[in-house]
Write a structure and sequence with these properties.
The protein has eight helices and five strands, in the order βαβαααβαβααβα. By secondary structure, it is α/β, with parallel strands linked by helices. It binds shikimate-3-phosphate. The site of shikimate-3-phosphate has 10 residues, from loops.
Length: 172
C-alpha cells in the first residue's frame, strides 16, 4: 500500500490527524520533523537558531528522501515541506498527498502559544499568518487532495482522509 502523506500549514493538525489515522489503519506514523531531529541531534528551534532556514530545508529534503522509501506509512510533514517542488514529487512517487487546510483565525488560535515553532513567534499576528498562507497557497495547491479542518474534530478529519484513501486509485 502507498503512504498517506499529510502536508499543510503549521497548526492544521497534521500530527494529531496522523496519529489518529495511524491508529485506525494500523499503519506506522513517521514525522519528517522527528526524523530531522533524530538525524541532526538538534531540536528544530536549535537548528533555526544555530544555522538558517536553508540549512533546515536541506535537512528536510534529506528526511523526505529517507521516508519516501517507506511503504504503508502515515507520513506527517513540516509545514514548509512543499516549498521545494522536488520534495512533493518525491513523496508522490509512493504516496497520496493530503493537504490539511484551516482558516487563518483557526491556525492563529492553535499556534499562538506554541514555543517550538521558530517561524511562528508568540507575537505573530493574524495578518502575518494570512501573509504566509497567501505566499504558500500555490505550493499547497500541488497536493492530491485538500482537506478543510476548521470546525472539524481530529476524528472527523481522519475519517475523511481514510475514506478518500480507501477509494483512491493507488499509484501502484
Ligand atoms: C515549518 C513548520 C514546522 C517545522 C519548522 C518549519 C514551516 O512544522 O517544520 O518549524 O516552515 O512551516 P509544523 O508544521 O509541524 O509546525
Amino acid at each position: 500500500m502507498p503512504n498517506i502523506v499529510l502536508v499543510g500549514f503549521m497548526g492544521t493538525g497534521k500530527t494529531s490527524v496522523g496519529r489518529r489515522i495511524s491508529k485506525q489503519l494500523k499503519m506506522p506514523l513517521i514525522d519528517t520533523d522527528s526524523v530531522i531531529e533524530q538525524d541532526s541531534g538538534m531540536v528544530i528551534s536549535d537548528i533555526f537558531a544555530r544555522h538558517d532556514e536553508s540549512y533546515f530545508r536541506d535537512l528536510e529534503t534529506a528526511a523526505v528522501c529517507k521516508v519516501s522509501g517507506l511503504d504503508n506509512h502515515v507520513i506527517a510533514t513540516g509545514g514548509g515541506i512543499v516549498l521545494r517542488k522536488s520534495n512533493l514529487n518525491t513523496l508522490k512517487q509512493n504516496g497520496i498527498v493530503f493537504c490539511l487546510t484551516a482558516s487563518p483565525e483557526t491556525i492563529w488560535r492553535r499556534v499562538r502559544r506554541s514555543t517550538h515553532r521558530p517561524l511562528i513567534q508568540t507575537s505573530q499576528s493574524l495578518d502575518e499568518i494570512r501573509r504566509m498562507l497567501a505566499n504558500r497557497a500555490p505550493y499547497y495547491a500541488r497536493a492530491d487532495y485538500d482537506i478543510q479542518t476548521s470546525g472539524l474534530s481530529v476524528y472527523q478529519v481522519a475519517n475523511r482522509i481514510i475514506e478518500i484513501f480507501q477509494h483512491a486509485d493507488h499509484p501502484r
